[in-house]
Amino acid sequence: MKEDREKQTQPLSVTKVREFNIPDVMGILHITSYQSDRLWISDKYGNLVQTDLLGNVIQKIKTSGGSDGHHTVTQNGDLIFTDIVNKVINKTTQDNNITEFIKPGVWVPLSIHSSHINGDLLVGMTGYREARVTRYNKTGREVENIQRDNRGQKLYSKPHYITENINGDICTSDYTKGVVVVNKSGQHRFSYKGQKSKFRPYGICTDVFGHILVCDYHANFVHLLDQDGQFLFLLLTQQQGIHGPYSVCADEKNLYVGQLQGTLSVFKFLQ
């Protein structure tokens, strides 16, 4: 069965088309694709930068500090980002007005993703010895909290990146729990803990085929999983010039990989 999966998926490969550094960006911690020729990028100092696909800066927002996967773009084009210092979620409309959108109370919002399926916001949070994923609707109303599996065990420790698959599964990258995937109802589907014992996942995304891509920063790999959690192969390694992959984003045309030293690599999917 495993061999059959690999035969079906192995033709997926990538070819690098360009690589660039963005001025005054100190480490590319998270990438969000916006329209067909725009990216939002955040660094370790709380800078949010919008660029084109050549690295030209279009606009820049200085925030008081976020976590790794702390921004997303809605279906309407609004930028939403977390503020871990003030424990709020802010919204920036296209006319550049910044407002407080959601106040999670005692919870610290780490990661955020705007659903392409229904516009809901998925937020990874931490609290006192607890962590959870909260679903909000478009208006910011809390809809659901996901915290434990059906045996009462904690699902999350530090969900610092979050995304959604084409089937509605919520996929998180967690420092100590690995890749944790629950279905759209919050039921635990599977966890992926890498191919080696020291696996610590960072950036995570899904592609149009339903694959899950996750950065293995310390090993210089980007792992490729199918939507059921089966490891397929290492999509990117040092052979493709990847050094310290920290963030990853896929749209219908390209794959973007951000590295901690500030380099952004653009790849084409080949099928």
Question: How do the helices and strands line up, and which of them pair or pack?
Answer:
Elements: H1 2-9, E1 13-21, E2 30-34, E3 38-42, E4 47-51, E5 57-62, E6 71-73, E7 79-83, E8 88-92, E9 98-102, E10 108-114, E11 121-127, E12 130-136, E13 142-146, E14 159-164, E15 170-174, E16 178-182, E17 188-192, E18 201-206, E19 212-216, E20 221-225, E21 231-236, E22 245-250, E23 254-259, E24 263-270
Antiparallel strand pairs: 1-24, 2-3, 3-4, 4-5, 6-7, 7-8, 8-9, 10-11, 11-12, 12-13, 14-15, 15-16, 16-17, 18-19, 19-20, 20-21, 22-23, 23-24
Care to describe what's here?
A hairpin with a 5-residue loop joins strand 16 and strand 17. The longest helix has 8 residues, at 2-9. The chain is built from 1 helix and 24 strands. The radius of gyration is 17 Å and the shape is globular. The protein has a 4-stranded antiparallel beta sheet, with no helix packed on it. The protein has a 4-stranded antiparallel beta sheet with strand order 2-3-4-5, with no helix packed on it. A 4-stranded antiparallel beta sheet has the order 6-7-8-9, with no helix packed on it. It is 3% helix and 51% strand. The protein is mainly beta and 271 residues long. The protein has a single domain (2-270), classed as YVTN repeat-like/Quinoprotein amine dehydrogenase (Methylamine Dehydrogenase, Chain H).
